[in-house]
Design goal:
Oligomer: heterodimer
Structural class of chain A: mainly alpha
Number of strands of chain A: 0
CATH class of one domain in chain A: Few Secondary Structures
Strand order of the largest sheet of chain B: 2-3-1-4
Distance between the termini of chain A: 52 Å
Number of helices of chain B: 3
Helix content of chain B: 25-40%
Helix content of chain A: 25-40%
Order of helices and strands of chain A: HHHHH
CATH topology of chain B: Alpha-Beta Plaits
CATH topology of one domain in chain A: 30s Ribosomal Protein S18
Radius of gyration of chain B: 14 Å
CATH architecture of one domain in chain A: Irregular
Strand content of chain A: under 5%
CATH class of chain B: Alpha Beta
Largest sheet of chain A: none
CATH superfamily of one domain in chain A: Ribosomal protein S18
Distance between the termini of chain B: 29 Å
Protein backbone atom coordinates (compact mmCIF):
# COMPACT_ATOMS: atom_id res chain seq x y z
CA UNK A 1 0.00 0.00 0.00
CA UNK A 2 2.55 2.47 1.19
CA UNK A 3 4.67 1.72 -1.86
CA UNK A 4 2.24 3.18 -4.34
CA UNK A 5 1.47 6.18 -2.15
CA UNK A 6 4.94 7.65 -2.60
CA UNK A 7 4.51 10.60 -4.86
CA UNK A 8 7.35 12.95 -5.52
CA UNK A 9 6.77 16.67 -5.26
CA UNK A 10 8.91 17.35 -8.31
CA UNK A 11 9.23 14.73 -11.05
CA UNK A 12 12.72 13.20 -10.93
CA UNK A 13 14.57 14.44 -14.05
CA UNK A 14 16.75 11.67 -15.38
CA UNK A 15 19.95 13.30 -16.60
CA UNK A 16 20.46 11.91 -20.13
CA UNK A 17 24.22 11.44 -20.22
CA UNK A 18 25.23 12.63 -23.73
CA UNK A 19 28.95 12.25 -24.00
CA UNK A 20 30.77 15.43 -24.95
CA UNK A 21 33.28 15.29 -27.78
CA UNK A 22 35.89 17.70 -29.06
CA UNK A 23 34.58 19.09 -32.34
CA UNK A 24 38.11 19.81 -33.54
CA UNK A 25 39.28 16.24 -33.16
CA UNK A 26 36.13 14.90 -34.77
CA UNK A 27 36.09 17.23 -37.76
CA UNK A 28 39.87 17.44 -38.05
CA UNK A 29 40.12 21.24 -38.00
CA UNK A 30 43.73 22.06 -37.19
CA UNK A 31 43.73 25.84 -37.21
CA UNK A 32 41.26 28.26 -35.60
CA UNK A 33 41.09 31.35 -37.77
CA UNK A 34 40.80 34.60 -35.82
CA UNK A 35 39.35 36.44 -38.78
CA UNK A 36 35.91 34.92 -39.26
CA UNK A 37 33.50 35.83 -36.48
CA UNK A 38 30.71 33.38 -37.29
CA UNK A 39 32.92 30.44 -36.33
CA UNK A 40 34.24 32.08 -33.18
CA UNK A 41 30.77 33.07 -31.98
CA UNK A 42 30.07 29.40 -31.21
CA UNK A 43 32.71 29.56 -28.43
CA UNK A 44 31.52 32.80 -26.86
CA UNK A 45 28.39 33.32 -24.74
CA UNK A 46 25.91 36.19 -25.00
CA UNK A 47 28.02 38.67 -23.07
CA UNK A 48 30.99 37.88 -25.29
CA UNK A 49 32.76 35.78 -22.69
CA UNK A 50 34.66 32.63 -23.63
CA UNK A 51 32.74 29.42 -22.91
CA UNK A 52 34.50 26.96 -20.58
CA UNK A 53 35.67 23.56 -21.76
CA UNK A 54 33.13 21.69 -19.64
CA UNK A 55 30.37 23.36 -21.68
CA UNK A 56 31.84 23.11 -25.16
CA UNK A 57 33.70 19.87 -24.48
CA UNK A 58 36.77 20.85 -26.52
CA UNK A 59 40.14 19.37 -25.59
CA UNK A 60 42.71 21.58 -23.89
CA UNK A 61 44.96 21.82 -26.93
CA UNK A 62 42.24 23.32 -29.11
CA UNK A 63 40.68 25.36 -26.30
CA UNK A 64 43.98 27.25 -26.03
CA UNK A 65 43.93 27.94 -29.78
CA UNK A 66 40.33 29.13 -29.53
CA UNK A 67 41.35 31.42 -26.64
CA UNK A 68 44.16 32.92 -28.65
CA UNK A 69 41.98 33.39 -31.73
CA UNK A 70 39.13 35.03 -29.79
CA UNK A 71 41.52 37.40 -28.05
CA UNK A 72 43.07 38.39 -31.36
CA UNK A 73 39.61 38.91 -32.86
CA UNK A 74 38.71 41.13 -29.92
CA UNK A 75 41.86 43.19 -30.46
CA UNK A 76 40.90 43.72 -34.10
CA UNK A 77 37.32 44.70 -33.16
CA UNK A 78 35.95 41.65 -34.98
CA UNK A 79 34.46 40.41 -31.70
CA UNK A 80 33.31 42.74 -28.90
CA UNK A 81 35.03 42.57 -25.50
CA UNK A 82 31.64 42.87 -23.88
CA UNK A 83 28.28 43.09 -25.53
CA UNK A 84 24.95 41.41 -26.12
CA UNK A 85 25.39 40.15 -29.61
CA UNK A 86 23.33 37.00 -29.96
CA UNK A 87 20.02 38.58 -29.14
CA UNK B 1 62.54 34.10 -43.72
CA UNK B 2 59.39 33.64 -41.67
CA UNK B 3 55.84 33.92 -42.89
CA UNK B 4 53.76 36.74 -41.36
CA UNK B 5 50.20 37.95 -41.67
CA UNK B 6 49.29 41.53 -40.78
CA UNK B 7 45.77 42.90 -40.46
CA UNK B 8 45.33 46.64 -40.00
CA UNK B 9 42.38 49.01 -39.77
CA UNK B 10 42.32 52.47 -41.41
CA UNK B 11 40.16 55.34 -40.24
CA UNK B 12 36.85 55.70 -42.10
CA UNK B 13 37.60 59.42 -42.61
CA UNK B 14 39.63 58.44 -45.66
CA UNK B 15 37.95 57.83 -49.00
CA UNK B 16 38.23 54.46 -50.73
CA UNK B 17 41.16 55.47 -52.94
CA UNK B 18 43.08 57.08 -50.07
CA UNK B 19 42.66 53.86 -48.10
CA UNK B 20 43.93 51.80 -51.04
CA UNK B 21 46.84 54.19 -51.41
CA UNK B 22 47.76 53.80 -47.74
CA UNK B 23 47.72 50.01 -48.20
CA UNK B 24 49.99 50.42 -51.25
CA UNK B 25 52.49 52.39 -49.14
CA UNK B 26 52.90 49.46 -46.76
CA UNK B 27 53.11 46.89 -49.54
CA UNK B 28 56.01 48.80 -51.07
CA UNK B 29 57.55 49.14 -47.61
CA UNK B 30 57.60 45.37 -47.23
CA UNK B 31 58.97 44.85 -50.75
CA UNK B 32 61.67 47.49 -50.29
CA UNK B 33 62.96 46.02 -47.03
CA UNK B 34 63.55 42.52 -48.29
CA UNK B 35 60.10 41.02 -47.85
CA UNK B 36 58.15 39.05 -50.44
CA UNK B 37 54.42 39.78 -50.63
CA UNK B 38 52.37 36.61 -50.92
CA UNK B 39 48.81 37.78 -50.80
CA UNK B 40 46.81 40.80 -49.74
CA UNK B 41 43.09 41.39 -49.26
CA UNK B 42 41.19 44.60 -48.87
CA UNK B 43 37.95 44.00 -46.97
CA UNK B 44 36.84 47.62 -47.35
CA UNK B 45 34.60 49.46 -44.93
CA UNK B 46 33.37 47.19 -42.14
CA UNK B 47 31.52 47.84 -38.90
CA UNK B 48 33.71 47.60 -35.78
CA UNK B 49 32.49 45.57 -32.80
CA UNK B 50 33.28 48.54 -30.53
CA UNK B 51 34.30 52.12 -31.05
CA UNK B 52 37.97 52.82 -31.76
CA UNK B 53 38.99 56.49 -31.49
CA UNK B 54 35.29 57.43 -31.45
CA UNK B 55 34.72 55.76 -34.83
CA UNK B 56 32.54 52.73 -35.38
CA UNK B 57 33.59 51.72 -38.90
CA UNK B 58 36.97 51.19 -40.51
CA UNK B 59 38.76 49.92 -43.62
CA UNK B 60 40.17 46.47 -42.94
CA UNK B 61 43.18 45.29 -44.92
CA UNK B 62 45.19 42.08 -44.72
CA UNK B 63 48.77 41.49 -45.87
CA UNK B 64 50.50 38.13 -46.02
CA UNK B 65 54.23 38.15 -46.71
CA UNK B 66 57.51 36.42 -46.17
CA UNK B 67 60.11 38.55 -44.44
CA UNK B 68 63.21 38.45 -42.24
CA UNK B 69 62.44 38.80 -38.56
CA UNK B 70 63.77 42.31 -38.07
CA UNK B 71 61.44 43.85 -40.66
CA UNK B 72 58.47 43.53 -38.29
CA UNK B 73 59.98 45.97 -35.82
CA UNK B 74 60.42 48.60 -38.55
CA UNK B 75 56.97 47.97 -39.98
CA UNK B 76 55.28 48.43 -36.62
CA UNK B 77 57.15 51.69 -36.01
CA UNK B 78 55.75 52.89 -39.33
CA UNK B 79 52.27 51.80 -38.27
CA UNK B 80 52.57 53.68 -35.00
CA UNK B 81 53.82 56.79 -36.76
CA UNK B 82 51.03 56.84 -39.36
CA UNK B 83 47.85 58.34 -37.85
CA UNK B 84 45.61 56.89 -40.59
CA UNK B 85 46.11 53.45 -39.04
CA UNK B 86 43.80 52.88 -36.08
CA UNK B 87 44.88 49.37 -35.17
CA UNK B 88 47.21 46.66 -36.46
CA UNK B 89 48.07 43.06 -35.59
CA UNK B 90 51.01 41.05 -36.94
CA UNK B 91 50.93 37.28 -36.56
CA UNK B 92 53.67 34.78 -37.30
CA UNK B 93 52.19 31.98 -39.37
CA UNK B 94 52.95 28.40 -38.31
CA UNK B 95 52.39 25.41 -40.55
CA UNK B 96 48.72 24.82 -39.83
CA UNK B 97 48.02 28.49 -40.39
CA UNK B 98 49.88 28.46 -43.72
CA UNK B 99 48.04 25.32 -44.85
CA UNK B 100 44.74 26.92 -43.90
CA UNK B 101 45.57 30.14 -45.78
CA UNK B 102 46.64 28.24 -48.90
CA UNK B 103 43.49 26.11 -48.82
CA UNK B 104 41.11 29.06 -48.45
CA UNK B 105 42.91 30.90 -51.22
CA UNK B 106 42.67 27.92 -53.57
CA UNK B 107 39.00 27.48 -52.68
CA UNK B 108 38.34 31.18 -53.28
CA UNK B 109 40.03 30.98 -56.66
CA UNK B 110 38.21 27.84 -57.74
Amino acid sequence: MAQSDIRYLTPISIEIKKDKYCRFLKSGIKYVDYKNPDFLIKFVNEQGKLLPRRVTGTSQKYQKRVNKAVKRARHLAILPYVGDMLR
Amino acid sequence: MNRYETVFILTPVLSEEQAKEAVKVYEDFVKKNGGKLKHNEFWGLKKLAYQIQKKSTGFYSLMEYEAPGDLIQKLEVEFKRDERIMRFLTVKMEKHHIAFAEKTRAAAKA
